[in-house]
Amino acid sequence: MIRLSRYQWTVLFAAWLGWGFDIFDGLLFNYVAPNAIPTLLDLPLGSAEARAATLYWTGLITAIFLVGWAVGGVLFGPISDRYGRRRVLMMTMVLYAVGTAACAFVTSIEQLILCRIIASLGIGGEWAAGCALVAEAVPEDQRVEAGALLYTAAPFGLFLATFVNAQVAGNWFSDMPEVSWRYVLIFGLLPAAAAFFVRLFIKEPERWQHAATNAAPPRIRELFSPELWPRTRSALLTTIVALLTWWSCNAFIPVVAANLGQIEAAQLGLDKTAASILIESWKTQATTIFNVGGLIGTLLTIPLAKRLGRRPMFIAYFALSAAALLATFGLDLAPQMRLYMYFFIGLTVFGVFGAFTFYLPELFPTRLRATGSGFTYNIGRILAAGGPFLVGSIAAAGAGNPAVVFNTLFLVGFVPLVGLLAMGWIIETRGQTMPD
Predict the structure, then answer these.
(1) 9-202+225-425 — its CATH code?
(2) Which of 3, 65, 193, 426 has its CA 20 to 30 A from that of 164?
(3) CA 214 from chain center: how many Å?
(4) Which letter, b or e, does each residue of 321-354 get, where b requires 16 or more Cβ atoms within 10 Å of its Cβ?
């Protein structure tokens, strides 16, 4: 049973909102990409050219987005350590809200990329400030529970993005797919309102105030000192494997579901409106199943981390991630069954991220907590950016053929297996207090 004071619950809720809306704005574009990209390129929706272009540009834009996310994390981590968690949390929430909503008004792919970069900088900066804020505000013996609960905001963000897209594109404007995506993206402004909640009710942690008053300004190069390098390496190894696996498969859930829906609609001889409704329902089904698995997997990090330890927990998640991906995309499954298998992908590939909100802050001292957490959690996105780009490029070369996408995603299942080879370098932090 988690034991927090009223104010500590308020801090957790504020950071929870920040991270949930972070994911909401970060992935909202993936839901509308099958309509947005062909429209901006003047391609007929549902055509072979549109499917191939969607796969290619989704991969490329996601890769650019991840690089921007990494830059935001590296940039705002030291700012948070120097000027405060609350200020950076509020600032970054407004930044990614404005960037996402601006995507609704673009008229070209180039403008879309620019707006996604703006949003990505804010999203990257928010995570480090939020997890440092929670880690420093809650009692030591409640850190794992609070950290895992913080990450349950990620499934919330995905659920909300799924709901908004289903309502706006699937119901309200189902007969207008060429413009429905713009109305979906306007909802990206929601986090700006939540930022005012942060401003009104949250103050800077006393632990940070003491460290900021008596310590020199943080420097990223300190993470590579002989004293901290083993901890930095441990954080990088776990995050890079998890990020590369997650983004390589998650970025294409709506695209895969849309392709399968288009095939089904063609076989049933549905008209344009009915086909659009079917496609949106398939995207909703796939992402909802993935999100439910992710939510359960996130909560499971609590007993696994506390009873087994951090290293055995990562071993379990990486091994099961590989099994889920190899089975889902390697076996000969019916389309609906393949969608159901996304539950196990969510449980493992998604679920492991519940550990980073408590594990990374445990590795670094207070004056470098946001710097270290932000750098290690986000710099791996530069490498992870290659995953969606390669998957999208290979799938596009196959003219959007679902079989090509499945074969490519099958290969992604080997990434967590490679991660298992690095487990000897993972630092165990179970039973330790956070360093000051």
Answers:
(1) 1.20.1250.20
(2) 65
(3) 35
(4) bbebbbebbeeeeeeeebbebbbbbbbbbbbbbb
